[in-house]
Amino acid sequence: MGSNSTSNSRTKCTDLQMPFQYSLYATTYILIFIPGLLANSVALWVLCRFINKKNKAIIFMINLSVADLAHVLSLPLRIYYYISHHWPFQRVLCLLCFYLKYLNMYASICFLTCISLQRCFFLLKPFKARNWKRRYEAGISVVIWVIVGTACLPLPILRNQDLANNTESCFADLGLQPISMAFSIGLITVAEMGGFVLPVVIITYCTWKTRKSLQEFQVPSENTKERKRALWMVLMCAVVFIVCFTPYHINFPFFMMVKQNVFSNCSFIKSTLCFHIISLCLANLNCCLDPIVYYFMTSEFRDQFSEHGGLVLQSCVRCKDSNLAIRQRKEDLQTISLECLDDSKAM
Q1: What's the distance, CA 145 to chain centroid?
Q2: Residue 150 · residue 85 · CB < 8 Å
Q3: In this structure, what DSSP letter does residue 55 have?
Q4: What is the pLDDT of residues 234-248, one digit of tens each?
Q5: What would the mean pLDDT of 137-145 be, rounded to a whole number?
Q6: Is 43 in a helix, a strand, or coil?
Q7: Average pLDDT for residues 263-281, to the nearest whole number?
Q8: Does domain 18-297 have CATH number 1.20.1070.10?
Q9: Boundaries of each G-protein coupled receptors family 1 profile domain copy (predicted)?
Q10: What angle do CA 84, 89, 152 make, to 5 degrees?
Q11: Where are the alpha helices (DSSP H) in the chain?
């Protein structure tokens, strides 16, 4: 009797409803969509067209921007679902949006780590950096996409079975497919070690080494500015990582254990599920925070954006001035024609 009571209690606690998640998800995605779309579109345009090909971490930044933009473009479908509570589209589209969310998260983690590591390497080993080829970045980026893309495949697959039974449900309303404890432990280990612990160690080390080099070495003023830029970029990568991805990965093992019915305390289960929802919202903020890495921490991006952005503004002002001049000329011609008509009538 006692074991049945505990099992029923776990089932009841696991099936707790979180009605606030719909409004929270919808609000978060609405607030992220426009800034994320504009910022990443402009960033991708500037990175691809107006930055010298020899600049540092350019390939990693482009890939990071592509990952963010892919997720941002799926947000309208998520907004529609969390407002209407209805999924009228095909099942594969739901799984694709679900897949892009986690693909963006772990691709962003990897590329932020690569940006920090490369920036630190170029600063500390300037002579070796001269032999660095752009094809190295391209090769590393391809490897990252293949590994991350493959590692994220189980996440939508675990939701596929429930989606087949509930064709009008998607995203947060999809339950996890029953999995063994061994598979759950393996999933947690891969996600935590590869997607959190290792990147945290690398970014922390790069931040420490960059800051240490700035404090210890007596270098010319120009080199000092370069070191400060490198430090700020690494720090910004760390801030994005801490704000967006740390809460989710701290809670993820507990969330998986809740889904495996390991805990029986209802308040703890409810807190874990609530924090999971909040941490997912924080994880989506990286789509808006990543462009700050390009603009504020990369002098080349800032200079090129300001230069070409200024040209666009100047052209807009010139177009406006020319339109005003044309309108003024039309008004003058109308005035002259009316005066001529009045003179003809008077004669």
Answers
A1: 15
A2: no
A3: S
A4: 888 888 889 999 999
A5: 93
A6: helix
A7: 89
A8: yes
A9: 39-294
A10: 100
A11: 2-14, 20-49, 58-73, 75-84, 91-124, 126-129, 134-151, 154-165, 181-192, 198-216, 221-244, 246-259, 266-284, 286-297, 299-346
